[in-house]
């Protein structure tokens, strides 16, 4: 057993920024981060567009950012939360800069602000088209400098350790030794990110399997708004299953047009904001166009844009296109919508507290009320920064209570068991991804959702038995978690009536 004062599960922007602050505040306390891959692997690392923050109050204002967020959320945002998150942005940006993150500036020394769908102003602070990479680099560097933070990479959190609605830590699999370790902690933070791999076609890296939400669900936390899945309109089209390269929405903010194969700039027919309508509207419009034409993709036309300025702003996108033979000065980029973000998750209050004592959640795995039915572009990094600070402030004033761990709980999994054949997990995973794409995608049908629910329940029962009788492994646990998340999405989609934001259901 390992004891720690703060156990943080996940090493993206949410987990790492909390770790830095709490470690500084309590230099004599132990902070432990467990993370299931390399320490920098996360959705955070792949963020392109940037962070939506009001930095220039001559053109922009908090009120405009608040209104844009509320419009995008289609009436389901928590207004108080929106106000809180938007107005705290500048302070959180200063901290990131103090930790060494660099953001692009204009020749006059102001932030070079990008624009994305749903934003009425240019307000997206960025580091070229690799904002997440820069943030992850800077904060991980800070974390490594703190003597009281231990980072355990390749450690997969299996389940929370709870008793009487209190979180006492977590069970964690050391993926290199296959040892299961019980972590006892005073406070636990779930910062496990998104769910993309449930859909197969996703902009998310392979780590996004919804583990934290599934763990919290098993521990009886409240999980809400799972039906609000955000599909990004412009993932680079290719025929393989797996993570898709993103063509940032900021490219449309820079002036790129969406066209059908025949050259029709179809977004003009759907929304007066055209390519810069919010993401739900653009993805749903592309979906309709593809169904009408039976084409496999639409195209992003950058041929009319200033090439030099484009390369300066989007060097990674330019190079990636070039590497597959697309010269953006002459060729259109083939794009399709792909799963990108989960608006719902573990319900937390304004201090990031879940329904379980001493358990907090932050970042993409949490549901704060900021996004409502659809997240405004570049509000996710902002939400994680603001809420990790909220949790830090709350815990900075919270006294520790000595807890004793029931010894039976720490004897988890000592018996030797057979290993499950990996063909089984691979087959069910592929089936699950197809099921989710077909039945719980951009447009859902009531009958499909019911069929999906039946299949998911069957897999869930099967997995329950398999987990009892076989050796625990990351792939088995991830599969079980993804099935749990699939069930939550499908069941909450069945319950919701009426289309809202990213949720569209037909009878
Ligand atoms: P993550 O950064 O995903 O970190 C989760 C961590 O938890 C990872 O370290 C993971 O390994 C770990 N983990 C998961 N399960 C376990 C487990 N069982 N045990 C141990 N560790 C575990 N948002 C914006 O605001 N602006 C953008 O420009 C932007 N661009 C994006 C571009 C792409 C391609 C993608 C995929 C997302 C983008 N987003 C953007 C969304 C944003 O990046 C994420 O929502 C945000 O970074 C999530 O941060 P997080 O800390 O909550 O989770
Ligand atoms: C993008 O750069 O298009 C992604 C921005 C986001 O998800 O907020």
TrEMBL record:
Coiled coil: 442-469
GO molecular function, one term: L-aspartate oxidase activity
Places the protein is found: Cytoplasm
Species of origin: Flavobacterium xinjiangense
Principal EC category: oxidoreductase
Keyword annotations: Coiled coil, FAD, Flavoprotein, Oxidoreductase, Pyridine nucleotide biosynthesis
Function, as annotated: Catalyzes the oxidation of L-aspartate to iminoaspartate.
The protein's name in its UniProt record: L-aspartate oxidase
FAD-dependent oxidoreductase 2 FAD-binding domain residues: 7-381
Family matches, as Pfam families: FAD_binding_2 (PF00890), Succ_DH_flav_C (PF02910)
């Amino acid at each position: 057993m390992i004891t720690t004062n703060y156990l943080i599960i996940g090493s993206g922007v949410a987990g790492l920024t909390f770790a830095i602050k709490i470690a500084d505040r309590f230099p004599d306390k132990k902070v432990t981060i467990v993370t299931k891959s390399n320490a920098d692997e996360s959705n955070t690392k792949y963020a392109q567009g940037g962070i939506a923050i009001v930095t220039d109050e001559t053109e922009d204002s908090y009120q405009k950012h608040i209104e844009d967020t509320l419009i995008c959320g289609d009436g389901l945002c928590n207004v108080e939360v929106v106000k809180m998150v938007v107005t705290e942005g500048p302070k959180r940006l200063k901290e990131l800069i103090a930790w060494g993150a660099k953001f692009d500036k204009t020749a006059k020394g102001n932030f070079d602000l990008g624009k994305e769908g749903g934003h009425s102003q240019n307000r997206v602070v960025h580091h070229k088209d690799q904002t997440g990479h820069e943030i992850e680099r800077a904060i991980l560097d800070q974390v490594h400098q703190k003597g009281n933070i231990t980072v355990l990479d390749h450690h997969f959190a299996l389940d929370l350790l709870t008793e009487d609605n209190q979180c006492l830590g977590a069970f964690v699999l050391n993926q290199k030794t296959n040892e299961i370790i019980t972590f006892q902690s005073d406070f636990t933070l779930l910062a496990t990110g998104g769910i993309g791999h449930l859909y197969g076609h996703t902009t998310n890296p392979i780590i996004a399997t919804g583990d934290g939400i599934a763990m919290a669900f098993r521990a009886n936390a409240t999980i809400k708004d799972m039906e609000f899945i955000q599909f990004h309109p412009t993932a680079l089209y290719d025929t393989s299953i797996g993570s898709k390269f993103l063509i940032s929405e900021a490219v449309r903010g820079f002036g790129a047009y969406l066209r059908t194969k025949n050259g029709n700039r179809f977004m003009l027919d759907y929304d007066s904001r055209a390519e810069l309508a919010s993401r739900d509207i653009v993805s749903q419009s592309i979906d309709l166009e593809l169904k009408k034409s039976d084409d496999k993709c639409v195209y992003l036309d950058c041929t009319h844009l200033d090439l030099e300025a484009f390369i300066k702003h989007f060097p990674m996108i330019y190079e990636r296109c070039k590497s597959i033979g697309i010269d953006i000065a002459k060729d259109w980029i083939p794009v399709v919508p792909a799963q990108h973000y989960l608006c719902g998750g573990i319900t937390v209050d304004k201090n990031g507290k879940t329904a379980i004592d001493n358990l907090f959640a932050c970042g993409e795995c949490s549901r704060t009320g900021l996004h409502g039915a659809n997240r405004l572009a570049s509000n996710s990094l902002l939400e994680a920064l603001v809420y990790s600070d909220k949790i830090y402030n709350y815990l900075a004033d919270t006294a520790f209570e000595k807890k004793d761990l029931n010894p039976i709980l720490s004897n988890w999994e000592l018996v030797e068991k057979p290993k499950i054949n990996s063909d089984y997990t691979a087959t069910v995973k592929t089936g699950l991804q197809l099921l989710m794409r077909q039945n719980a995608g951009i447009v859902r049908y009531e009958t499909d959702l019911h069929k999906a629910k039946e299949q998911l329940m069957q897999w869930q029962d099967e997995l329950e038995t398999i987990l009892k009788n076989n050796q625990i492994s990351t792939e088995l646990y991830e599969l079980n978690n993804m099935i749990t998340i699939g069930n939550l999405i499908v069941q909450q989609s069945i319950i919701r009536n009426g289309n809202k934001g990213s949720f569209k259901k037909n009878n």
